[in-house]
## 1
Amino acid sequence: MSKKILIAAALAVAVGLPAGAMATPEEDRIQFRNHFQDRFSEVPLEEYPNGVYAIDPVGRENWEAIEEFPPYEPFIDTGRDMWEKPFANGKTYADCFPDGPGIAHKYPHWDKDKGMVMTLPLALNNCREANSEEPLKYKKGPINDLLSYIAFESRGEVTNVVVPEDDPRALAAYEDGKKFYYTRRGQLNFSCAHCHVQNGGLVLRTETLSPSLGHTTHFPVYRSKWGTVGTLHRRFTGCNKQVRAKPFEAHGEEYRNLEYFLTYMSNGLELNGPGARK
Amino acid sequence: MRNKTVIYALLLGLALGAPLASASLDATAVQAAISAAEDARKQAASVNGEWRDTAKKIKEAKKMLAEGYLAKAMDLATVAEREGELGYRQMMAQQEFEMPAFIKH
Amino acid sequence: MIETFSRKVATLSGAALLAAGAVLTPLGASADNHGGSEMPGKAIAFDRGKGNCLACHHIEGGQSPGNIGPPLVAMKARYPERAKLHAQIYDATTINPESAMPPFGKHYVLSPEELDLVVDYVWTL
């Protein structure tokens, strides 16, 4: 729990958050969605989980060809083995996640006891550590197998991030993620929003910029550029590096709060991970 | 004759990019510039405004200093300090959150 | 520390700009008729690690341009004053706070000398 959030939360309570000065998460989400639906009026809402392929017909053809033999399939199989294989103490992931493996739609969520945003990879590592297993790395490697399996088993569930009203720290975390998203960063001075809200659909060199609506539905994602499956926070890291900003720690507070905000923006959209992208 | 020797020495120094060329800089000044760069980097980091390559430049400056390439070390430290300062200012200019107009409806 | 440093940098870059301007402006002016094909600023403008103008702007003769910014054509008509074009590339957010264009001068993506060469080149487009 950071000092920053505590202060923000305390302020929010003290001032009582004057209405109008700050939009509610729900108002933000509607505005965000309307922005894209105005910008791409031909694109039905349920297409946004397909990312850039919702708006780029040429890229879409290639993508559909790739999806006939999904490059992420072996990762799902390995992940299933990981899920089922008992830890050294005889327990399994299912002991931590009785509703598993299709649990991706329950994350990220506000963890009131811990006073922080809980993400799925963090919860998986908490489970491992509670069972005396080494935590997995957050960007590359086996965590992607496990996440691929969980994402696959969660397909068809709907994004439904909640910012509980009974804990002002949750709203503060959401607001922190929102501010991160709209803040210019790095030597090149871009915010996330400059590329994926203001200019989503336009072309940067040869690449069409993906719309931000639906960004979180299909992770982890097999990227041809990576030649493997990678996590959402690996992608955040890449974006920050591209604008020449120092990236933040995967599943540290900044990226957790960013994930909280960004996933909230896609509330109502179906989960369709793992995905495949260029 | 003597002039020629000096010129040859200079040319040799230039060719090697050697410490000779930076004889007017002293290591203490370079060390101070590196410390200033490190302070500026930390100040930027304290507001989440550190740029991607600032720490790398400071590391490289230290290496150049250790190897006696004072001018190169000084250049790197100067750029790194400037980046720290700019990253800090970039964040301070955005402390007050404003929703960009491009998304307003 | 920071304030002292900014003054130092401001003085330095000012001097460098003056020096570069004095040397390079005539060069830029003389190359006008050639469409800039031989101008040193062109290589900087096309370099992905430097100006990388093509990432967002169409430039005649440039491969796979983006379309985030307007095509770079008729620049003298759009910027009768070279200084205005310089200001735009130096930091576009002073003119439009929501511009997505990186502040090539303010953030030293280009050195003052490189920026001047790029301005010379872009002005010929």
Note: The CA atoms of residues 16 and 112 of chain C lie 7 Å apart.
## 2
Amino acid sequence: MNGRIDRSIDLGPYVAAPDDGMIICRCEEVTKGEIRRAVHDGMFTITEIRRYLRTGMGLCQGQTCARLVKQIVAKELDVSPDVLEDAVARAPFRPVPMRVLANEAEGRTR
Amino acid sequence: MQQSEVLIIGGGVIGCATAYYLSKRGLSVTVIEKKQIGEGGSSRNGGGVRQSGRDPRELPIAMYAVEHLWPSLSDELEMDVEYYKKGNLRLAKTDAHLKILQGLTDRATALGLDVRMIGADEVKAINPYLSDEVIGASWCPTDGHANPMLTTLAYYRKARRQGVRFITGESAQRIVKQKGRAVAVVTDYDTYYAERILVAAGFESNDLLASVGLFVPMNRILLEALVTEAQPKMFEQMLGTAEADFYGHQSTHGSFVFGGSSGIDAYTSDFDRPVTQGMTAPSICRGIMGYFPVLADAKIVRTWAGWIDECADHVPVISNVDEVPGLTVACAFTGHGFGISPAVGQILTSLMTNETPMVNIDALRYDRFKAKI
């Protein structure tokens, strides 16, 4: 969420749902239930969820699951998805072999 | 108006660890964080839990943390912080490198740390993946690494469960004094009264300390890190080099996390948030490949930058403030705060409950900085 958040707000108890076992982040195999529980553990921002569970940290960098994760977190917090700030996109955006990335300047390869 | 026994400004690993240890003692604690939990260096560092290579003034804190706190931290916080106590290799390729490492090693052994110089054969036995160009290393078998993001969030989670009130997205503006004593902090939202106030806000601590006339000499320095895709399990040591070309480790996940710099990052830091530079990750990659040719085909999936609150004398300020009773400061960790954070949390708990810390921290006082003439 953007803006001020009191992390002691009462979200109510975590109630297991039939689809909690559904894989949401395919790269890192994180389920819907894990994401919902993370919110109850106090992870209220997309970045905290990502650092806690590795959602969006895999090979696709969240290009597949980012919107789904956001919807799940917003629902658990009972807020609109709009108020949740996206996690920062990180270079190089597509996985690049080390030997290629290292070759950025002439004469600087190994 | 809000009230608690202790108020902490800064929701990084230091603030969260201190909140945890204070609340474990039954104190009521409020933490105010301007952005989100672990926004700064706490989530951006290389994860080293090192004793070797440390300044003698902070080495005893690191040794205490490694001996007494890190090994049981996952159990205590009921969450795996991915701590490995499998040693640190600091690698050398030239005689000049060996000389640098010998100096570091001599200073650490004088303080009782088990660290020694080893030759190429022993290095290869510890880590068979290294380049044949490596001619030696310093080896500290009790060093290691942990996951900084999970450690910070584990302290936060447990502290929150113990009743600590965390508020994020709220900005502390100034400290309020009454009859010379720090009694409250004014934020952009409310005023928070407390018997003890801790400022642990990294480089930005100075913005708040200025309101009571204090200043810690530190610079904001950019460093970068990168992570590879998951690789087969290769080794568990923490690694660095004599020339600091790079440092890092293989995580539980299998990815390699390496930090480093291009050498000129410090002059590219003038943004409102840490931004990666095009030349830095390639520089780190060349550094890694020079020692680990086997990783040349590993794919980099992500790079990031973070700021170090670099102190004028390269060790932190961890101190009560004599002329402002009620105020405690912990900042200027200079890029090596993560490894000592559990011990610092306990030291700060002692300082704020009028006990003598288990490690002497007189050399880390806030008023140690003097004009040179």
Note: The first strand of chain A starts at residue 5 and ends at 6.
